[in-house]
Design a protein that fits this description.
Strands 1, 2, 3, 4, 5, 6, 7, 8, 9 and 10 form a ten-stranded antiparallel beta sheet that branches. With 419 residues, this protein is an alpha+beta fold. Helix 1 packs antiparallel against helix 3 and helix 1 packs parallel to helix 5. The chain contains seven helices and ten strands. The longest helix is centred in the middle third of the chain and has 74 residues.
Length: 419
């Protein structure tokens, strides 16, 4: 009799240990997962799977469309490069501009398709998040049911459990049943943890796609502005030359001569200015200027054409020698650094109205296409001082500032000196 009692107590201890391990494990993990944001209450099942597959098909179609456009853009780039290698004629220059406009139109179309594709991907991720949240909610409901069942079984006394079974083998079968429930709980807990991690990744993917969409929309607006400039360039060229090859060649000759003269003038003007300042004993301010601390000449500085820009429409004639900065008519232009005004020129064919300032260490800056100037030659200006207003004088199809930095008279990349 004593041996039977001890055996019952041992079996009861096994049951208590098994239940406590399963219950404590389930409870702790449930507490972690129940705090996550799960708004869905039921899985949508196959309906969402079908929608997701449909979105995948649409995304693949968008990618194919974009790839086709990229291929066409590549062909237009080749056309532009080929045309730039040919003779400098008005017809050839118009061909280059036409190809650049067509390329930009395709770039804009491609951006629009990328935006559509990104919106489809956002829709797909939202569906995946909804489905995942529903799966997590369903698994939590299942865990709650398991735990309620275990809790009900735990309320039974071991005597009633034994009396309700015809033999010890049935009692052990019931323990086996509890072990199976324990395994099911563990599997469900694993699923909850995996889906919770997946949900976190999906939400991050969603934010990344939204950020990508914002960036694409900003680039689209920039490219629309560039295309507008390119169309203006073509119209401007036609107006300037009146479709006359002779006038075009004369214009090109004048612009090249003017740019070469500007290159040669800087070094000579700086030497002359230094000599004059030395005679006046006023070189101290000039010699203490910082050569590598230029500031932006405009309060806002959106670059529309870079130094030696590969897309510069007149690259077959000469490289773009500075930065073109977007600016409305009569935007204040400031000196990029302190220095002496070496030249103020009005009405030139290439730069229009422009100012050249000499700085220390063989540096100079040039500000072109101004509508008006506020300084005079030989005047000292401080960094950030107003020197003129932006415009569209000279060979310019629209208001902007052409800004150059020159070292020993040779144009260099302004971005190497700007913050």
């Amino acid at each position: 009799m004593l041996k039977k009692t001890i055996h019952k107590l041992a079996l009861g201890s096994v049951f208590i240990l098994l239940f406590s391990l399963v219950y404590s494990s389930a409870g702790s993990i449930l507490a972690d997962t129940s705090s996550s944001d799960t708004t869905a209450t039921a899985s949508t099942g196959g309906a969402d799977d079908s929608l997701i597959q449909d979105l995948n098909n649409q995304i693949d179609a968008q990618h194919k469309k974009i790839d086709d456009m990229v291929s066409q853009i590549g062909q237009l780039n080749k056309n532009i490069t080929d045309a730039q290698g040919k003779a400098t004629t008005l017809q050839n220059q118009v061909l280059i501009l036409n190809n650049q406009i067509a390329k930009m139109e395709l770039d804009i179309d491609a951006k629009n398709e990328e935006i559509k594709s990104t919106n489809l991907e956002i829709d797909k991720i939202l569906l995946q998040i909804k489905d995942n949240e529903a799966s997590i909610a369903k698994d939590k409901d299942q865990l709650s049911a398991f735990i309620r069942q275990l809790n009900q079984d735990d309320q039974k006394s071991y005597l009633s459990v034994l009396l309700s079974n015809n033999s010890f083998s049935e009692f052990f079968d019931q323990i086996k049943y509890l072990e199976n429930i324990s395994s099911d709980i563990q599997n469900t807990l694993n699923r909850v943890q995996e889906n919770t991690a997946k949900l976190t990744n999906q939400k991050q993917d969603l934010q990344d796609k939204k950020d990508s969409l914002t960036e694409l929309l900003a680039k689209l607006e920039e490219e629309k502005a560039v295309m507008s400039d390119q169309k203006s360039e073509k119209d401007f060229l036609i107006v300037q030359t009146k479709n006359s090859e002779k006038k075009f060649q004369g214009l090109v000759g004048d612009m090249k001569a003017e740019q070469a003269a500007a290159n040669n003038q800087v070094a000579a003007l700086e030497k002359k200015l230094r000599d004059q300042l030395a005679k006046k004993g006023s070189t101290e301010k000039f010699n203490t200027l910082s050569a590598a601390a230029l500031g932006w000449p405009l309060a806002a500085h959106r670059i529309t054409c870079t130094f030696h820009d590969p897309d510069y429409p007149y690259r077959n004639l000469f490289e773009h020698s500075g930065l073109d900065l977007a600016a409305k008519l009569q935007t204040p232009v400031m000196a990029a650094e302190g220095g002496y005004v070496a030249k103020v020129a009005l009405g030139t064919k290439w730069y229009g109205n422009y100012i050249m300032i000499i700085h220390s260490n063989n540096l100079a800056t040039l500000y072109g296409h101004l509508t008006s100037v506020n300084v005079a030659q030989d005047q000292y200006v401080g960094k950030g001082q107003l020197i003129g207003l932006s415009g569209s004088t000279g060979f310019s199809s629209g208001p902007h500032l052409h800004f150059e930095v020159r070292y020993n008279g040779v144009p260099v990349n302004p971005l190497s000196y700007l913050p």
